[in-house]
# Entry
Amino acid sequence: MLDKSYYDKTDEIIAEHGARHASLIPIIQDIQAQYRYLPLELLSYVAKKIGITEAKAYSVATFYENFSFEPKGKYVIKVCDGTACHVRGSTPILERLYSELGLSQEKKTTDDMMFTLETVSCLGACGLAPVMTVNDKVYPAMTPDAAAALIRELRG
Amino acid sequence: MISKKVDTMDMINIKINGIPCQAPAGSTILEAAHASGIAIPTLCYLKEINAIGACRICVVEVKGAKTLVPACVHPISEGMEIFTNTKRVHDARRTNLKLILSTHRQECLSCDRNGHCELQNLCYEYAVDSNMAFEGEKIQYEIDDSAVHMQRDNTKCIMCRRCTAVCNVAEGVGCIGVSGRGFTAKIGSSFGEKLAESKCIHCGQCIIACPTGALSEKDDTSKVWEAIADPDKYVIVQTAPSVRAGLGEEFLMDIGENVEGKMVTALRMLGFDAVFDTDWAADLTIMEEATELLHRIQNGGTMPMFTSCCPGWIKFCETFYPEFIPNLSTCKSPQSMFGAMAKSYYAKKMDIDPNNIVVVSVMPCTAKKFEITRDDMSGAGEGLRDVDISITTRELSKMIRRAGLLFNILPESEFDAPLGIASGAGHIFGASGGVMEAALRTAAEVITGKSLGAVEFKEVRGAHGIKEATYDIGGTPVRVCVLSGAANARTLLEDIKAGKRQYDFIEVMACPGGCVNGGGQPFQPSVVRNFSSVSSMRAEALYGEDASMELRKSHENPAIKQVYEEYLEAPGSDIAHHLLHTSYVDRSEK
# Structure
């Protein structure tokens, strides 16, 4: 059971968008922005509040890669692995980040909850390939070394 | 030229395979073709439930269209020329079948659905076999057999979504849905939980909607064989009204053929020690329920009162509308009343140790498998479950086949006495409106103290989702409502809460059309379901039997009078309450 504050915050978010079926996605986007993940308890709560079944809400939330039921790290790193980034060397960057952070395809978030590493299929910035983002800030023309340096910088 | 008889104003002209014909405006190609004698195959489409054009098996050619179009959702237009049987169409359907097979676990020999599988039948018709399926990745899914009534095997799922649609649209439950996307998308309970932990009401409508073997009831027939083989056990079988209205379909008889006599013979040949009728207990239910209704009316009890025969509806109410639990009749269902009486009254009468009695019920229903596991279902004493094993109509047909009984040529015979004697009122319990009508026949006469002229209450009959009527019973207007399909219960309960509707007595059955269309009834493929009302046809079998009888009112049933004289004292007595009534639980937290 989550703390009451989570539900109060969710009520606020729902009020902002209106308790309508069509508001599901903006509501859960805001919840995820608030907590860096989408707690299942809140998804269930939202479903009830806007009058859809839990199964429907779950369908929508699992359809989009962007929603995560697992808490994410303070810094969410997205390495683009679209065609342009792939041919210009995204794989070595990804591998370097995995080893630098001790992560893998299965383990996406560091134990200290600092970093989450994901791949995305295209960030729409092919001219800047290979590209990655950290909390939506874009880092163009990356190399494995530059990525490792960025991690050290973020660790402070 | 074949065409439907409809007002010509609404008809438009099309050509199907070069033959001119007419069909009502607004029809889909599928409907127009069917009216012209052509069945276009479908896998995902279910009339009024699921029209999403996803499986692409129903594709046809339309002159001038660039691509093939899905007949199930494509409307006809004036002058349209449709081709349903060209090589292009056949090739496309075969390719689609091969694609479906490439991820389908093919264990057709032992699959529960063998012989009734719509995918299997199409592969046969289109000469597609497993060697032709495309090579590719297959996902191994764990079978979800957590629930008592059914299991889900996603390796046989073709993602048609008929199950999720029926769960949402007809039942208003929505406990299952798609999760994920693309190749890894799958159907399951919300939040990835097991079905047993979900809000499932066990109605089994998803099972009869499924075109393949992905969904099936839990097979409990081995328990029945075991009980019959045990010389120390006295095995009693009871059959619900709807079983006789559906069982014949398993043996290629017409839908709606009443096979009561053959069924009784078959049960005796299977080796049951006594063959009884749940309809007897339906009469008993009416005595208790009509008495309870009158008591509530006369003593200012909680109103309106809801019937409690349907375990799917009970779970629905407990889960989604616990505030209406006080409105539920406390009467057990006929299945459970029967069991409690078999292990008390009948055991005493026959001098059999109730511990050695095994009560088997044959039900059109999968929720009955859940009902027998409920708390407060041991009327005859601790450890004496009212019903020990509940099997569906389909499971009974499997037993009959395995025993080699030639069902179609079996002679007819009658149920054993006394728990096999039932009135016409008991028989009609299986149809939506039947419980209401049976209760009215008795309540009216108990209140007025005199015999009513009319026996039939036709306003509450039929397959409509919500039916209502007001009857003057002894000077008191009694407002009744009958509904089937749990989604209609949602509508009605919301209206009652909002004060928009007022009733005194409400019958609810979770399955659309009532138990005749239960989740445990024989499979009918979508090509039949989409174009005929299977529930109405089966209901006719029950109304027909009722109409042919002298004995049509529960309170006139001599076997019922006898049981009150010898054992139960009076309807609503302490002993009747102990044996025949139960309690409910608020399940809304889950």
In short: The helical segments of chain A are 4-17, 24-35, 40-50, 54-63, 83-87, 90-101, 144-155.
